[in-house]
Write a structure and sequence with these properties.
Layout lengths: L5 E4 L3 E5 L16 E7 L4 E8 L2 E7 L4 E3 L13 E3 L2 E4 L2 E4 L2 E4 L4 E5 L9 E7 L2 E7 L5 E4 L4 E4 L18
Antiparallel strand pairs: 1-2, 2-3, 3-4, 4-5, 5-6, 7-8, 8-9, 9-10, 10-11, 11-12, 12-13, 13-14, 14-15
Length: 171
């Protein structure tokens, strides 16, 4: 059963609109609210449009493209390309500028860092078989934890509270 207050069914389109919407100019009068299931003769593609006050709020095209002003999606959402919140989505990486979060490699990279001792920036993550951390320029000044040894290259400035001590092995 189909019940509609205002609607048209024809060979290329089914249109169901809120009462008060005039035909045939529903798309141009800025007041249409409803649903249009259509077929475009020029592109030979179908579409589903949700309208509110003449503005398309939701559309699903025949190629699977979903566009929505507001969407609540529950369940599993899978994407291996695209963008979200300014971040670029790749199969195993989210990135924006010089920030990369790599899921499969288990790494966070900032700046030009690409490996524990490659590129100026911050490397944090798995470098098989252990996890490492490095900040700075590996060609000059940096702090590097290789999973067992902490290396500091560059000047170290210390400030201690009264009564505190520091011990350095072998000194």
């Amino acid at each position: 059963d189909i019940t509609a207050n205002v609607g048209i069914l024809n060979a290329g389109r089914a249109t169901f609109l809120q009462p008060g919407t005039s035909f045939p100019n529903w798309a141009n009068n800025g007041t249409a609210t409803g649903l249009v299931i259509g077929f475009n003769d020029q592109t030979q593609r179908g579409s589903l449009l949700g309208l509110n006050a003449g503005v398309v709020q939701t559309s699903i095209n025949s190629d699977g493209t979903l566009t929505a002003i507001n969407a609540i999606i529950t369940g599993t959402l899978t994407a291996t390309t695209g963008t979200i919140g300014g971040w670029t989505i790749a199969a195993a990486e989210l990135s924006q500028g010089n920030v990369k979060l790599q899921s499969t490699a288990e790494r966070l990279l900032l700046g030009a860092a690409t490996a524990p001792l490659t590129g100026i920036g911050i490397f944090m993550g798995l470098d098989t078989p252990d996890y490492e951390f490095r900040i700075g320029d590996p060609a000059s000044k940096y702090i590097h934890w290789d999973g067992s040894t902490l290396t500091v290259k560059g000047a170290v400035h210390e400030t201690f509270a009264a009564g505190s001590e520091i011990g350095i092995m072998g000194w």
